[in-house]
Write a structure and sequence with these properties.
single chain; 193 residues; six-stranded mixed β-sheet; 2 helices; 28% helix; elongated
Length: 193
């Protein structure tokens, strides 16, 4: 029990440390390029404070576990793919695996070979990419799958596939339509004598 508790504690506060350094790096970059905003800085500071408070409270509840994050990707049937990043600690995780994406309320399926899951070099984020979807004829709907390391779920993946928008026609107004040139009426010529 104490080994699991220590692993969860180290993992949680390790992730908090990575998040705080990411916030500080972003703030330093904003200061360097002259785009520093107090609202963004205070939002990042409050987020870190709430995360630390959550860690403290969950330490008092030894059985509490962090919620599994959910990633939502939105594409159309005309898109060939999309990608997303998920900031999550995978340093202690076993080999990453993922399931096929199954359509909720339907029979559609996006196979595992259309989904690429990679970890960053620092193992602090997961890169998720969908590719080659245009050729598969994916039906519109909501698809769900899971990313896991061994028996530990790391993220729930939702993919919203929208139907391809109809091709847009150019809008023509009365002012832009070409009107044929008006001919001046001709007067009849008098007969020649």
């Amino acid at each position: 029990m104490s080994g699991n508790y220590l692993e969860a504690l180290v993992g949680y506060y390790g992730q908090l440390a990575y998040d705080s350094t990411r916030v500080m790096r972003d703030m330093r970059e904003d200061l360097r390029v002259g785009k520093f905003r107090w609202k963004r800085w205070s939002g990042g500071a409050m987020s870190l404070w709430f995360d630390a408070a959550e860690g403290w409270y969950s330490a008092m509840l030894s059985g509490a576990a962090a919620p599994v994050p959910t990633v939502l990707l939105q594409i159309t049937t005309a898109d060939s793919g999309t990608q997303a990043e998920l900031h999550i600690d995978v340093r202690f995780a076993a080999k990453l695996s993922h399931s096929a994406l199954l359509q909720l309320g339907g029979t559609g399926r996006i196979d595992e070979n259309h989904l690429i899951i990679e970890t960053s070099k620092m193992k602090d984020q997961i890169d998720i990419r969908l590719h080659n979807l245009k050729r598969t004829g994916v039906a519109p709907g909501l698809y769900q799958g899971i990313i896991h390391a061994g028996q530990k779920p790391l993220a729930i993946l939702l993919v919203q596939v929208e139907p391809e928008p109809p091709p847009s026609r150019p809008v023509t107004s009365a002012a832009t339509k070409r009107r044929p040139a008006k001919r001046k009426p001709t007067k009849p010529r008098p007969p020649r004598a």
